[in-house]
Amino acid sequence: AQSVTQLDSQVPVFEEAPVELRCNYSSSVSVYLFWYVQYPNQGLQLLLKYLSGSTLVKGINGFEAEFNKSQTSFHLRKPSVHISDTAEYFCAVSDLNQGGKLIFGQGTELSVKP
Amino acid sequence: NAGVMQNPRHLVRRRGQEARLRCSPMKGHSHVYWYRQLPEEGLKFMVYLQKENIIDESGMPKERFSAEFPKEGPSILRIQQVVRGDSAAYFCASADYTGGQETQYFGPGTRLLVL
Questions:
Q1: What's the pLDDT at A53?
Q2: Are A43 and A14 in contact (CB under 8 A)?
């Protein structure tokens, strides 16, 4: 069965510093990859997605992620974070052979400090 | 275009009562997914429905939980005889898979507290 691992449960970082949130998934022939952000007491908002094509994907709020098939990774990056980026970030995989349901990682809590 | 709507946003029930959670998908979306987020955990898939059909219920607990998505009206997640362990945030997501759109859009969630 497909699984997703987010290697860091918490990532503290200072404002304007770069950040990388790591995500690895178990190998599968055909997957779609997503990053979602969840602000406190809210639902999930899509940041970006990889379906096919270019392995570097750009999303909203200045985030980007790179799909690396050989390392089965989909790390999320931002060159300069803001206080408003403080939130929980979830990596998810959709296995095309399992009807499109999303398999989520445990989440990474990004805390941006002034 | 309104987003995915869920109600109620917060629901308090005593042990043994029933909880009904509603989800109205985005306009034109015919695919609905339910996920549960337990405290300090990620989201776990529960069930996938299309209009009048349950497609995949592999994540649903075997007892007390049921889901439907009727031809008219919202999708309903029903929990009978709730227990404290059912306390969680329940999220619904909808999707439209025509034209290669593979994205699920999430509602704000219903936070269930069982006393």
A1: 83
A2: no
